[in-house]
Design brief:
Layout (H helix, E strand, L loop, with lengths): L2 E11 L1 H4 L6 H6 L14 E5 L10 E5 L9 H7 L1 E9 L16 E3 L2 E9 L7 H7 L2 H5 L6 H15 L5 H19 L3 E8 L4 E7 L8 E4 L7 E5 L9 E2 L4 E5 L5 E6 L2
Antiparallel strand pairs: 1-4, 1-10, 2-3, 2-4, 5-6, 6-7, 7-8, 8-12, 9-10, 9-11, 12-13
Helix pairs in contact: 4-6, 6-7
Length: 265
């Protein structure tokens, strides 16, 4: 299982979340507290963030197959780069899944960033081909790696491409409903903590078809980060972190209002 983070709010430098907190993303890469299926998150990492105009400029991506703690360029980059929306993924690769740049998250499509923590059980033997057979050309050709995460994102891209004007939260709802239906037919476990960002909005989901979703927390208007919302696999510092409810799909707008878009059965 990976560790993920989504941030929306006042403009900050990336190091405010990656390096400075007591239980920062750096610390979570080598000393996670709530990781159940591994010891480390050392199979690569990725950051995605936005510039001054998220509506017209695609997000910036920085990914590496090194463990986060071994990237010597990252501290300077994170001190320099600033953003009002950040998505982070620390990778803990599934068994026999290659440590390769194409398998590192976040993934992006136009203005959207995507990060997933979870799994599709026995993915290559179960839903790999059925998902691919559903995809439109744009979504199919967007896949460069082998992970279940990227195929979940490709299905989301499919709904965005084939239903012009569809709301992002609705596209995610259709995605997870389709994945859950396919998984139940195949008799496999599906787990999906997901963060999406457009630069001005976060959409998040915590779902597990066995009600065993990985840890996920929400923090709004922290004294340390006022006028912000943070979603994270593990709390980064002492504060009023709230467990993100299982089966909830939420939308967080530019005004930081948190709305439950749907409850996923």
């Amino acid at each position: 299982m990976c560790r993920i983070l989504g941030y929306l709010g006042a403009r900050i430098s990336l190091d405010q979340l990656i390096f400075k907190p007591d239980h920062s993303m750096l610390v979570q890469s080598y000393q996670p507290r709530e990781l159940k299926s591994a010891i480390l998150n050392g199979d690569g990492f990725g950051l995605g963030w936005y510039g001054d105009d998220p509506a017209t400029m695609p997000p910036f991506l920085y990914r590496n197959t090194l463990p986060l703690w071994n990237d010597q360029n990252l501290p300077d980059l994170c001190r320099y780069a600033q953003t009002s929306s950040l998505v982070v993924n620390l990778r803990s690769a599934s068994a026999r899944m290659p440590v390769d740049m194409s398998n590192c998250q976040p993934f992006s499509h136009r203005q959207i960033l995507f990060s997933h923590n979870g799994l599709i059980e026995n993915f290559r033997q179960t839903l790999y081909r059925p998902i691919r057979e559903m995809l439109c050309d744009v979504a199919y050709n967007s896949i460069y790696g082998l992970t279940d995460s990227e195929h979940i994102f490709a299905l989301l891209v499919h709904y965005l491409e084939t239903q012009p004007g569809i709301d992002l939260a609705e596209a995610l709802l259709q995605t997870i409903q389709q994945i859950a239906q396919m998984a139940n037919i195949a008799g496999v476990h599906v787990s999906a903590n997901i963060v999406l960002s457009t630069g001005r909005r976060l959409v998040a989901l915590r779902f597990d078809n066995q009600q065993k979703a990985p840890s996920f927390y929400l923090l709004k208007d922290s004294l340390r980060f006022p006028n912000s919302v943070i979603l994270a696999s593990e709390p980064l510092f002492e504060d009023d972190w709230q467990p993100y409810p299982q089966s909830a799909l939420m939308s967080i707008g530019a005004n930081l209002d948190i709305q439950t878009y749907a409850t996923v059965a």
